[in-house]
Write a structure and sequence with these properties.
The chain is of the alpha/beta class and 397 residues long. It folds into two domains: 122 residues, ATPase, nucleotide binding domain (Nucleotidyltransferase, domain 5); 225 residues, ATPase, nucleotide binding domain (Nucleotidyltransferase, domain 5), CATH 3.30.420.40. 42% of the residues lie in helices and 16% in strands. It contains 16 helices and twelve strands. The strands form two sheets. Strands 3-2-1-4-6-5 form a six-stranded mixed sheet, sandwiched between helices. It has a six-stranded mixed sheet with strand order 9-8-7-10-12-11, with helices on both faces. Strand 2 and strand 3 form a beta hairpin. The structure holds adenosine-5'-diphosphate. The site of adenosine-5'-diphosphate has 11 residues, from helix 11 and helix 13.
């Protein structure tokens, strides 16, 4: 079963083709185009590239095209991208202005180009649909909530990957199976009295979020109504007081649009460091004594600890803390700073193992650490392919 996973940006198209036959999953091809001005041509060129690579001879061989869609009104999970779902996405264009419009446009073009191939979306919000309501609400008037102002949370594909893989690595195959069934049975499968599995998943990258996971399902996340909250992001602000924007508009004499632009383009690690939005450059400059870089680094680490602490309490401890994404997988010094001085909570990092680990699945805690610390490279596209396959198989029965 060949499943194409397409990542649509406003001027980019990236793809991976998986063979998900039987129980094996193989990446057959990956590629992409930047600075796309003619999207129909980019789709044509993508199909031509797959044919030239010999991985398909005709697009009818595609069992489906899967998309990592972001957010839609009253729709989440893994669903067929029909007119109703595309309208629900359009209704929330304002919540995801950089993502929803190009996805809607791109999906319509895929539908025109290959009308018989099912188009399926795995929403980034899907992993949070079973979180307790209290963790997803803001304390706003009811009309605000009804308008979509709530903690939706994102990076769902990545945190779901971590939920399944960490359960496997911890020998909890019952929980891994529960994660696999999550969107099929609505998180209703029970663990038959087995001990709970408590995981704190730290996706630290260009954008970062931390998610608490109980028995394979999210209980909450550091991200909120938009990816503009929680930890500081590369150029984006992270958590900010609700009064800050109207105050900035009045006192700095800028428009609300300019305030939004600055908070999404000039803020976060870039704004704090005054130097770069890239954690590698920030860490190097901090090591050389740059004060702005050190501040950005310290703020990032402190924010990560804040959210890990929040879920540690909510989960009544943790069996594992998992690091993933560009920073989490590769930057040992940042992992060490986040895990420093937590022996009192049973969190003990093996400094040598940590320092030696880059982007490989590894346990980096000491043998006597009550909480296991893991590095698990994420694979969001594979999650999209897996859920797409599950939906196809499920709807065939
Ligand atoms: P995105 O969230 O845009 O997908 P990534 O997950 O790749 O991005 O994360 C980007 C961040 O991770 C940057 O701050 C970068 O410095 C850091 N990063 C990515 N790859 C590496 C690497 N090989 N070594 C060190 N840092 C890395």
């Amino acid at each position: 079963m060949k499943i194409l996973v397409a990542n649509l940006g406003s001027t980019s198209l990236k793809w991976r083709l998986f063979d998900c036959s039987n129980n094996a999953e193989r990446l057959l091809h990956k590629g992409g185009f930047e600075r796309v001005t003619d999207y129909p041509k980019a789709i044509e060129d993508c199909l031509a590239a797959l044919k030239a690579a010999g991985v398909i001879t005709n697009e009818s061989e595609l069992a489906a095209v899967g998309f990592k869609t972001v957010i839609a009104k009253d729709v989440t999970g893994c669903v067929r991208l029909d007119e109703r779902v595309l309208s629900a996405m359009a209704a929330y264009n304002g919540l995801a202005p950089a993502h929803n419009p190009p996805y809607i446009t791109g999906i319509k073009l895929f539908a025109q180009r290959m009308p018989t191939v099912p188009l399926i979306g795995l929403f980034e919000t899907a992993f949070y649909q079973f979180a307790p309501e209290a963790m997803t609400r803001y304390a706003v008037p009811a009309a605000w909530h009804a308008a979509g102002i709530r903690r939706w949370s994102f990076h769902g594909a990545s945190h779901k990957f971590v939920a399944e893989r960490s359960a496997e690595l911890l020998g909890r195959h019952d929980v891994a199976e529960r994660v696999r069934r999550l969107y099929l049975d609505g998180g209703k499968s029970s663990l038959n009295g087995a001990a709970p599995l408590r995981v704190i998943s730290c996706h630290l990258g260009g954008s970062s979020s931390i998610t608490g996971i109980l028995n394979g399902a999210a209980i909450g996340s550091s991200m909120g109504m938009s990816p503009q909250s929680g930890l500081p992001q590369n150029n984006r602000v992270g958590d900010l007081d609700a009064e800050a924007i109207p105050y900035a508009v009045k006192t700095l004499g800028i428009t609300i649009e300019e305030a939004q632009r600055q908070l999404s383009k000039e803020a976060g690690l870039k704004g704090l460091s005054g130097l770069s939005n890239d954690m590698r450059e920030i860490a190097e400059a901090a090591a050389k004594g740059d004060a702005g870089a050190k501040l950005a680094l310290d703020h990032f680490v402190s924010s990560a600890r804040h959210w890990i602490g929040a879920f540690f309490l909510e989960l009544n401890g943790a069996d594992a803390i998992v690091f993933t994404a560009g920073i989490g997988e590769n930057q040992a010094d940042i992992r060490a700073a986040i895990c420093a001085n937590l022996e009192g909570l049973g969190i003990k990092l093996d400094l040598a193992k940590n320092a030696a680990t880059r982007a490989t699945e590894t346990v980096i805690s000491t043998p006597d650490s009550a909480v296991k610390i893991l590095v698990v490279p994420t694979n969001e596209e594979l999650v999209v392919a897996r859920e797409t396959k599950r939906l196809l198989e499920h709807s065939a029965h």
